Target: hydroxyacylglutathione hydrolase
Amino acid sequence: MHVKPIKMRWLTGGVNYSYLLTTQDRSKSWLIDSAEVAEVLPHLSNSEMDSIEAIVNTHHHYDHAGGNIAMLAALKKQIGRTVKVIAGSGNSPAASDIPKHLQRYSLGDLEITCIRTPCHTQDSVCYHVKDSDTNEQALFTGDTLFTAGCGRFFEGTAEEMDTALNDRIPKGVQEPNWNITRVFPGHEYTKSNVKFVRKAVYPNLGDNKSFDELEKFCEGHEVTTGHFTLTDEMQFNPFMKLNDPLVRKAVSDHKNAFTHAQVMNQLRKMKNAA
Model:
C-alpha cells in the first residue's frame, strides 16, 4: 500500500492531515479527511484523482469532513463520476455509506476494517488497513488516538475513550498485527503531547525508555505521522497505560484505587489545562 500524508491548516495552527491511501499497484485509492480542498487538490496528480473510489471521514468535525461536497464536485469534474462518501454518521456532509462496527471494505487488494470509537465524537471511526501482498498495515485514527495522546471528550466520556483506546482499537487490529500497524492520526500534535507527558508523567530520563526514544525522534522531525506502530503507542502513550504506576502517580492515585475511567478522566483534565 501507499500512504500520502497531505498537510492542511498548518499555517493557521490546525496542523491537520488528509491522507491518500492507495493500493500497491496505484489503481484504487481512498481520500481520507480532505477538509481543505484548496490545500489538498494541488497534491493530487490526475492519475491519483482518477484512482479515488471514496472520500472517507474519521468523524464529522468541519476540519475533517467540511470539504466533502467541494471535493465531490472536483472529482466529478475530473473523473466524470460520483464517488462514495464513507463516514460515521449523516452529520458528515454527503455521507452515503455509514459503516457498522467492524464492517469491512475491500479496496483492490487492501482489506479495511472500520472500528467505531465513539467519544471525541459519537461518530468517530478508525480505519485499519491490511495489505496481504506487502504485509503492510495502517491505522487511520482521526482525533481518537494521537501519537502519545488522545482526543478531547467532546461528545463522550472518559469511559468511552478508555473503551476506544484500550479495547476496541486493540481488538479490532488484533494482537498479532499491533507491532506492524503504523498509526496515522488526524493532527500533528506529537511535540505538544510529548511536552505534556514529559512534564506530567515521565519527568525523568529512564522512566520510560520508549518515551525517551519518541522524545528524541521529535527533536529532529517535524512530521511524525506513520512513524510509530500501535505497539509503540501501548509502550509510551499514557492514555493507553492506565495501570502504569507512574501514570497513576501523575493523577494522584496513590492508593491504586481509581478505575480506568477515573485515571483517563483525570489525565485528560491535566492535558486540557496544560
Summary: The chain has one domain: 2-273. The radius of gyration is 18 Å.
